[in-house]
Amino acid sequence: MKHVPEESTTDSLGEIFTNRKPNPLLCEPFRLEIPQIPCKFGDEFLSRVVSWAGMLEWPSVSTGHISLLELYIDFTLFTKSLCPVPIGGSKGTKVQKYLLKDKSNIASTIVQPLAQQNVIWVRFLRWAETNGCTLWPHPILQRSNCLMDIVYSLWTPALGTHPKLVMGDKTYKVLKSLFQTSSGKRRNLNIAYSGDVSSLLQPSETLCVLPVDSPSWFV
Question: How far apart (Å, rounded) are the C-alpha atoms in residues 116 and 94?
């Protein structure tokens, strides 16, 4: 059987992500609607999400689905923060509170793989949608196969249209590095992810993810 070089697989994965990008000339910002309500995941976390989401730009016609996971990676690169950590609660009981890792010594010691971060991210976005927070022009789709072309075969929550991401190509490079390893394509999210993209990329791909107009929580 003829062996397919690993390089061609890597290149094709990169093309898959870059081909997802909409035409920027057809995209425009969306006016968010955020009610003045306390956020169970933390008001500061909601504020960070709102600041990021307000910078997404959306095409006037559908460009294919985007997973909530892809949006999460874009969010973490822009804000340099992760989703909050649930404190307290266990199977059958409610979480007592959510704390940000960069604001809590307790939360900073808790290690969560990307799979768990994604669960909390999706949980937060569903809470926001249910409580009248309009972050984008499309409702959340509960099941999408938009990640199947990168060998992540599970159904995933998504949005019906792919926006122009805040961090652009940087986000796609990180996604590629997460799903493509030296031993092949990754098939699950049980991996470490701290938002430190320098450990994920090749030296030639090192990113500067701190925007000029960085929000105050970067400092």
Answer: 16
